[in-house]
Amino acid sequence: MIICNCNAISDKDFKKVAHYADGSIKKCFSALDKRPNCGRCFTGIQNIIDLAHADYIAAEKLKKSVA
Ligand code: FES
Question: Is the CB of 31 within 6 Å of ligand 1?
């Protein structure tokens, strides 16, 4: 599904870079070699970043519990 209409960037594209973008919407765009325009997509992108971070934390906790 397209999240950013200005740049035709999908949720899958943002999911790929969300973890590496250090929680920053601006860095997500940079990682995709794009620039934000209108900003209407920011809430959706922030949700993707937050979910990616939550998944990362859960995976780290699971690793520690198994180790
Ligand atoms: S919809 Fe993403 S910058 Fe406009």
Answer: no
In sequence order, the 6+-apart residues with CB closer than 8 A to the CB of 6 are 36, 37, 38, 41
Q: Which protein residue has the closest C-alpha to ligand 1 atom 2?
A: 4
Q: How many domains does the chain have?
A: 1
45 Cβ closer than 6 Å to some ligand 1 atom: no
pLDDT exceeds 80 at position 67: no
State the pTM of this model: 0.85
Report the distance separating Cα 47 and Cα 41, nearest Å.
10
Domain membership of residue 34 as a residue range: 2-66
